Amino acid sequence: MSTGFTLSIDAMGGDAAPKMVIAGLNRLRDAFPNVRFLLFGRAKEIEPLLGRYQRLRSSIEIRDTWEVIGSGDKPSQALRTGQNSSMRRAIDAVANGEAAGVISAGNTGALMVMAKFVLKTLPGVDRPAIATLIPTRVGQSVILDLGANVECSCDNLVQFAVMGEVFARKVLRLEKPSVGLLNIGEEDLKGKESIKKAAAILQDSKLAIRFHGFVEGNDIAEGTVDVFVADGFSGNIALKTAEGTARLYSHFLREAFRQSIMARLGGLLAARALKRMRDKVDPRRYDGAMLLGLNGICVKSHGGTDSIGFSNAVRTAIGLISDHVNEGIRNDFICLYADKNGNGKRAAL
Amino acid sequence: MSTGFTLSIDAMGGDAAPKMVIAGLNRLRDAFPNVRFLLFGRAKEIEPLLGRYQRLRSSIEIRDTWEVIGSGDKPSQALRTGQNSSMRRAIDAVANGEAAGVISAGNTGALMVMAKFVLKTLPGVDRPAIATLIPTRVGQSVILDLGANVECSCDNLVQFAVMGEVFARKVLRLEKPSVGLLNIGEEDLKGKESIKKAAAILQDSKLAIRFHGFVEGNDIAEGTVDVFVADGFSGNIALKTAEGTARLYSHFLREAFRQSIMARLGGLLAARALKRMRDKVDPRRYDGAMLLGLNGICVKSHGGTDSIGFSNAVRTAIGLISDHVNEGIRNDFICLYADKNGNGKRAAL
Q1: Which superfamily does A1-120+293-323 belong to?
Q2: Which of B189, B243, B300 to mutate to test the interface with A (most CBs of A within 10 A)?
Q3: Element (H, E) at A167
């Protein structure tokens, strides 16, 4: 049984909110009886939905919040004018100690900007990064950054590597996860200056990160390393390309099984095995991207998610809290920035 | 029947060369009886292989070349010291008019650097780009750049858009292909300055390109646009991630059909339909990346390709020559760089 704590929930974020939020939380009620939920959103819309989930009701407290950040709103504007939005108030609840973490399926940019403003970054972290798990041939890997930082310095990349390594160690329960820097193949063209410099730093890091070196796009699906580190631009493109390709393949597969009576029959016979395969790559299973490097647990669920995906995002937050991921990052950054004499000064990267 | 011309072939490029090269050319003998092949490579290794393909022999001329550029060689070094390599001499054959185009499955970076040095770029093209076709939900699209240029200015991106549009028009036989700039999703973070500027230029381009705007990684598999324009870094990562994901999915599928006797039987019944699907996404079908913007046709085949892939790369080159792709690019660049009065001066981009 998990230790009891409270999670704050942006009940209005996501295309199918607040309905999928409530249904998603209900999925977790039995598995996490000690976790309480602080819901921020329109009580008038949330209350009627709870009628179906009487037992969930006792784990929930609603904070009536009328304002909602739209998916098309500019993050900078959300920060300026969204102080009373469900998203902002859900984040505030972490900052003021009411909740151990926050989950939202709303506007990613707004969540990022507001969470950074309210929660601040952990000591030593210049920029937070968005991280998630992805399915690979050999299991799962961590990939970051997925879009929080368009341009990244070598220091940013090194910090992402440190944070991603802690994430993999804690969440994937790996003793010594391997870390790779996403790059392109051609030797002479091999990457941007920032990536080459980051590689040099990681190679002789005092943190003893198991640095594998450069990896390429095709290594992601292979699971060549446990942690894929990229700038937010190429990381975002890699993740979305992988998701799109998986969907395309599923589409072609469905089409193939419709081509003839024989194929239909074949599909029926193999239905169970195919379902197991689909489950393995189901994006809902990997819902829950962590805003890593913030002074508080903040998890983003897919905007288009359903109750299954949202419940997994909440599960991700519960895992991050129970596994003390932020404490791990804090410790590793103290090591990274302390010089050899351990006097706590920031060492030159 | 195609008009007769000669192609120069780097017979030593690629992991399985020269064997797969010869077998690949043999696949094209009947379809293109008027195309002749000028082979650069080790005659001692090539001659014995031709024994099996007597009829191909008459379409081939071998230029004995001992030196070979290795897949790990630095492009800059290849350029300095590889004047007598099979790759370099195959490129030279295009420059001196002996051949209408060159195909190599060797070191991409070396091919790029040597081809640019020998063939030069087309008027108005600052930097060549690597382009290829990829399978999508609705057919095929063009994607470029795939790694020739790690960092790209907005001018580079605009030029890639122009070249990619011509490529799609000619090779995919589209009257008015749509063009998109690969970017990431979040509004406020929306992309790098260079991409935003390129979008602004393409929006009011005098070329009347059908500019769709920004696209994301998942749009590639969807085929949202006919031409995906990216800097070489993210384009390379997108293509390799897509290829890796497709391979992973195939692997999971094979695994699924091995899970039980029922699944095995299902797989057998659906075998024909599944094969058709596999063929549709078979990377060998899309072998042949064009080095676009050079003053000569230069096609790169996958380093790890087999005879089927290599024959498709040669087929790509034949298509590019027959479809006058370079003449199209030349014309469009004259339009792009001529000012309103048509006096041929380069207009400010």
Answers
A1: Isopropylmalate Dehydrogenase (3.40.718.10)
A2: B189
A3: helix A154-171
